[in-house]
Structure formats: C-alpha cells, structure tokens
Amino acid sequence: MPPETQVTGRPMSLRCSESSGARTHVHTPTPLIMQAIAERLRTARPRIDVVALPDVTGWHVDPAGNLRHDSGRFYTIEGLDVLSAPGRPSAWSQPIIVQPEIGILGLLVKEFHGVLHCLVQIKMEPGNITTFQLSPTVQATRSNYTGVHRGRTVPYLEYFTEPARGRTITDVLQSEQGSWFLGKRNRNMIVEVTEDVPVHDSFCWMTIGQLHEALGVANLVNMDTRTVLSHLPFDVVPERSELLDEDSFLGALARSRRVAPRTRQSLTSWFISAKATREISRQRAGLRGIEGWTSVAGHLRHSDGRFFSVLGVRVETEGRETTSWSQPMIAPVGPGIIAFITKQIDGVLHVLLQARSQAGTFDVVEMGPTVQCRPGNYPDSTPPFLADVVGAPAGAVRFDVVQSEEGGRFYHATNRCLIVEADAGFATDVPDGFAWSTLHEISALIEHGHYFNVEARCLLACLNSLWRG
Amino acid sequence: MPPETQVTGRPMSLRCSESSGARTHVHTPTPLIMQAIAERLRTARPRIDVVALPDVTGWHVDPAGNLRHDSGRFYTIEGLDVLSAPGRPSAWSQPIIVQPEIGILGLLVKEFHGVLHCLVQIKMEPGNITTFQLSPTVQATRSNYTGVHRGRTVPYLEYFTEPARGRTITDVLQSEQGSWFLGKRNRNMIVEVTEDVPVHDSFCWMTIGQLHEALGVANLVNMDTRTVLSHLPFDVVPERSELLDEDSFLGALARSRRVAPRTRQSLTSWFISAKATREISRQRAGLRGIEGWTSVAGHLRHSDGRFFSVLGVRVETEGRETTSWSQPMIAPVGPGIIAFITKQIDGVLHVLLQARSQAGTFDVVEMGPTVQCRPGNYPDSTPPFLADVVGAPAGAVRFDVVQSEEGGRFYHATNRCLIVEADAGFATDVPDGFAWSTLHEISALIEHGHYFNVEARCLLACLNSLWRG
For chains A and B, what is the number of CB pairs under 8 angstroms? Predict the structure, then answer.
C-alpha cells in the first residue's frame, strides 16, 4: 500500500502558470491539465493488474476469513449479515469494507484577481478507469494527520488540521458508499487562505468555473472532489440574478436557490419518520463461508454473478518515484445509474429525493438520488423512476456524464450521472420514500452530516455545475 | 409493564379551566396543578417498592444473562464492553439499557388570546422521586405509533404521526442518557394546532411562562418535557428587546440570542475534530459474569459501590384504573451535578460546552454541559470546573434546581442543575475538549440531531427559562 497521498512523476509544466507574471491568469488552463494527465501516464507508466486475492502481497486472511493488511492498518474486508425491515423485509450477507477511521477530504481555495481558485491535484488511484483524476488538495486518512507522521507525509495537510490556517468555509462529516463501506465517513472541508501558497508538483489552481466545466468530462473529477464541491455555499458561487426572471431551466434553478424553506419541516419530518420506522440490523461476520458468495479464480463473487466481486489489484509505477503495491478492491458488476428527476413546481426547480437504507449506511437512512442502482442487479424488476430517467427525451436531459467512484477502494466503479427535467405532466404526488426539495433547503441541510448520501452529493455538484454561464 | 402512556385516577378539576368562559385564562393556574398532583397521589395511592431482580414478574434472564421482558418488547438490560481512546485510554464493562426503537416526545402547542400554550400531562413514572411530574403531551414508543395499535392507545398521538395534524415547529432526533442507554434516541416534536383540542383527564394547558416558572421547582418538569422545551425557537419566545441595552446577565443573555454565528465554523470544526480523533469501541456482551459487577441481594452493583445499580421495582396503583407491574431499572449511586459555566465575552453571554463521549453515545461525541458528573464516582480526583461550579459565590449562581432524569427507566435519578456566571477573571482560554458558544449558535445547531446531549439540552431549557420577565 502506498502513502495515501503520493507524488509521482517528475516536475512538469503545471507549476509554470503560477509564475507567469502579474494580472495573468493563475489557473492552469484546462488543455494544459489534460496534457499534464497524459504526461503523467507517459512518465509513470502505471501498470495495474487484476490478480487473485491469494496473490495480494502484504495482505492475509485472518482466522475469521477476513482480508487484513499485515500491518493492521488501512482497511479490512469483512462479512456482514444484514436484516432490513419493514417495507420489503429482506436479509442478506455481503462482503463490506471496514475502515472506521475518519479521514480528511480538503479543498484549499484562494481568491486571485477577485476569482476564487481551488488547489487541485492530479492523482492516480489504481481503481480509476482513467488512472489519473483531479482530486482535492488533501485526501488523508486519520493516521496521516494524527500521531507521529502529523503533517509530514501529506502536502498541505497543515491547512486543514486544528487550528485551520485559513477561514474554514465547510467542515462536515459525510458518509461514503453505503453499499460497500460499513459506516465510513470523511470530513469534507473547504478552507480559504489569503497567504501565499506554494504549488507543489502535480498540483494546480483551477477556478470553480473550470471545475464545473470539468464535471462535464467523463471520469475526470474524482469522487472526493465532487463531494467536497457539493458543499460550496451559495455566497461562494454568486447569484446570477439575471436568470431570476427567465422562464427556463436555469431560471428555475436560480429561483430554487432562493426559495425560503417553506417545506423544510416537512422534509426533515419525512426524513426522521423514515429513520424512526425503518430498521436495519447489521452483524459483522467472518468472510469465510459467507452465504451466497463463492470464490472463483481467486475472486470472491456473488453466486448469481450480481452486485460486485472482491478482487486483488497489483500496481507498479515508474518514473521519479517508482513504487509498487497490491491491495484488495471491490469491483461492481456493470455500471450504475444515479439520477435526479427535477421538476418546475410554481416555477421553482425541485429535486426528487429518495430515502435510502443501504447495508453500510451510518444512521439507518440518508437522502439519495431519485434513482440509484446498477440495472444489472435487477433482472426481474425495475427500480422506481428508472424508466423515466433512461427514457427521458433528449431535450429533457440536463446532465448526462459518467463519473468514477473512489479509485482507492473500488475497481472501475462508474455511475452514469443523469439530471432530467420532468415535464408538467409528471406527478407531483410521489410514492412513500420520496420527497421533493429545493436547492435552498438542501444547502441548509448539507452543512450537517448524514442528510445526503455520497451519490446525492455527487449529483448536487453536477447540478450546481449547470449554473455556470 | 403498563401502556407507555397511562391515564390513572378519576376525572378531576384540571379540565374545568377550559370551559370557564371566553377571554378568561385557558391555562390551569400553577397552584391548581400542584393541587391536582397531590390529588393524584391521594387517589392513585401508588405503591412503588424496590425488589430483587429475580422477583421482577414478567421478566427473565436470557441465556446470555441479559434481562428481557417475557413478551420480547420494551427494552433489555445487557452488558457492554467499552474501549475508549485516545486522551485517557480506558476500558470498562457495564450494564446498559438497549432500546433501539425511536419514540416520540411530542408537545402540542396552541395560541389562546395571543399567548402560546402547551398541553401537558400529569404523569406517574415509577422512578420519579416525586412520583407525578409534568410530561409532554405524548411520550410514545414506536410500537405505540406503528402497526396495529396505531393511534388508539396514546391520546393525542395523531397530532404527531404522519402527516402531522398541525404546523410542525420542531422535529428532531435526539439522544438520551449515554451513560445508561446504548444509542437511544427519541423524536423531539413540537406541533402547533389551531383547531379545537379536547382536554382529556390528567392533561392541562400551561403557558410557556408557566412551564419556565415550573422549571424553578425541584423535580416537577420531567426530562422529556425539558428536552422538548430546549428546542423552542426564538420566534416562539419573543425577543425582550428592552433588555438588549442592559448591562446585566439578562442583557447579555438577550444579546447571546442575537449574535451572528461568527464562531460557528470553529465550533463545528472543534466538534468534528473531536469525533475524528476520539475512538469509542463497544461490544455488546452478556450481562452474566460482566467484569466488575456483582449481584448483591438481588441487585447488580459495581464492585466499588460506584456508578449505579440495576434493581427491580414493583408498582401498584389504586383508584379508577388499578394497575400493577414490575420492571428492572437503573439506580445511580448518589445525585449528579450538571452545570453550565457562562461568561460575558464582549457583553455577550457565552456558554462553556464540553465534548463528551459516554458508553452509549450514539455517534462518538456530543456536546455536553461544562460539568456533568456524579461526584461520588470520583473519590480521588475532581472533574474539570467542578470546583468553580460548586464553589461559585451565591451572587453568581443564576439557576440551582434539582431535576429528575427519566422516571420510566431510572430510579430516583436526579441532577442538581446549575447555571453559574463566571466573573471577568475566569479564563476565556479553555482546555482541549471545551469550547464557548452563544445561544444564537446553539439554536441553529439544536435543530439537527446529536449535537447536544440530553444533559446539555436540559440546561438549555433551564437557561431559556431565565428569560421570563
């Protein structure tokens, strides 16, 4: 296993933009970033091979059959028995990643010439379908930021540890993929500085507009960046008041940011009701002999071939910092779909949220997208609203880009991210478990942890990206 | 075990005030309420005896040694092994109440003649040191409000179930005593109605001013009422703007409600930091042979005689609805102290909060009072700030009243509730684990669950009660 934040490859052109003289742009132009990613691929020559679990060096199977790093660090992959009720009471067992430590996903922002810029890293993760993606300034596990290694191994970490070196704009504990992680969460932080910040190799400044544009490119902005971006307060992305009177999607979006939380109590009541009436009981169990899962060619698979498999990955890189390691990962079967159905109600854009309970959900229920599924897992049925989303007419599709899930734990895990605008005929009355909200309301709740799951936060970042001019 | 909300005794004078003609007061005058409580005691003649655990009818010891109701309902008392780190790493085992169901604590409010009134019940709980106390309109477990018994057994429940029959002012999931409950929480709800509400036997309307006054009487307002009251939004208890220029405690309190959350991010960062750096690992274990605990005369006690014991209680009442039952309860050793140290900083009242992790805390840490302890548990040491609180000069003590903890689970559990105003010499720099806040900031966070523990919420209700004229 590598250090959590690693700087590979030799110094390259990314830094140059910082020294190109007064009044010029500080951000690295997007073509240069794409070029830098290509250069990384060329110099680091990362070689990422899928291997059998017994061939994952440095990891062993413990007496309960769980996968564990020899150092005891990082994470384990264990078995979980799940019982969920009521609604469709169901019981199942599955492998799950256990990583109780709380890490930091930190984005450093700074104003240059009146424009807010974000310090972004070009970072490799073995599970990334595109190998290198744009990550936040810091992705650090707790062992990186406490104890003996404090502040030494992770560049820029000191801006996010206590006391923060700048103005903390966002600091909230948010969950990650409940299907594959047991109660995992990270601090999502945005810190603004005014001091000079050295730009290390593989880092660059991007404007928020640039990042929003990059969200339109498949598998470019990584999950950690997307979840942090979903917290950007409205005063950081200023109001485009010229849109407010427009009879358009963007006009309805502009008004959605403004509408007082008239429905606030009923949304939170709906949410708390779901917490109070649903039950999910979980029992950690050994991975050995876990029901419904079998080892095939050294990978752990569901016996129906559905859901995901647990496999091994071996990584080798060249260049300035040669490194190699192996690790187990979760590889979903087929791509997923996550989608918001939006609708103008009284001229205000509303987003349709779903109360979701997953195996690893930290606190019973979080609000997720309207649709969140891997269609391949439903051979005999169709999740609610999936047909509305995939069958939406082209003119109603406001966003449609494939994005990657966390490449440090998940292998080639992608979701097609869709934002669809429903027409006036779409029923405002929705089934149990669904509720409408506005961006105003969402932005008030997202400051607090565990309201929105990572898939909903990703789509919120995508929805906010449509705001750009 | 009785129905969770039971109506005992015969019809009495409480209702009369409702029919006493237009423009008269709707609330029941406090002397009449005190009289009604005395009358209840006289007619119900509750007899509450402490008994040995084996003599608790209807309960049995399961194979793991845990205490369980024969029906499988209500709650269990189990063993818990706790490991907490870092700071003072410690490991211990203790009995704990397991009751994963989420109940409703609901207060129905209605405006009469421009004054908000709360519908309160005079309710008996076997653990109450004063037997009858003032409870919220509804105290219901989940089995009361879902399934077959929906709305039939608990009066007024229909005002709080979905969809609420009135305007929901507050609906938030909050935790209860982390020392004795494993992750227990209830919905704290305030619902305002405009329709006519029948006043059933043992219920009466009280103004918020009356309830605030009642908080000044020892063991009168029960814990459930106090936690719900702590959520009263400021617009429900109007601003007393005449105080804003006063150079007094109340003036500083008035300004504390107004100060914009300048320190908001740093308070939440401090809180999230505590969550991220502390660890508490818990393993449910059988109560049989739990380390450090022994059975003495049929009660389970800590071998040092500290903390609490688990004992049995047998209840018999007379009057119109004769009833009897037995149940196990937790009885703390000696009274506790919970206290806020407050201080005027730049003329604004600040409250000193402590990040607390207890055995049963739902999510690692919650914000608690400055001081929260049973001094008898610390024979060889003194918790931080305890001396400042108990040694405060009389003129600095703003509130000093003994209040009861939940009488349905805890036997004669009381806390001396203190609010002390520190003088200018009191250090504003506080140790790790403590932070200052204002009421403005607190009121923004208390709308969301799991920021403040039940002891802090109780003191907030007491602090708000000082606001009355």
Answer: 58
